[in-house]
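Please, structure for the following, as tokens.
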Amino acid sequence: MTKRIYRFGGGATEGDATMALLLGGKGAHLAEMCQLGLPVPPGVTITTEVCQAFHEADASKHGLVVGLLEELEGHLVWLTDVCGPGRPLLSVRSGAPVSMPGMMDTVLNVGLTSTTLPDWV
């Protein structure tokens, strides 16, 4: 596993629709929409390989998570530069290469509250 986090939007899109196995269906298509010039808020996609490595890891899970968080910090700095200062909105989606019925048990829009909403408006 080499590259674990891919950016989309904000003039730095990495990936496209052909990368669904690596980026998941949603991640690949967000990248594709950015490549086509559609207005997509910038973000990052953590690869399906990271998920697989996490599930396969035993005692090394902690090291995997710590390393990923360190890598993610640089991407959050980029997002702040692109979006401006404010509270980040974390939108967590499942990453299967193909969407399946019943896959809606995902966490959505972590951090969107009545307190943070004015920052996003």
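The chain has four helices and two strands. The helical segments are 20-35, 48-56, 61-83, 117-120.
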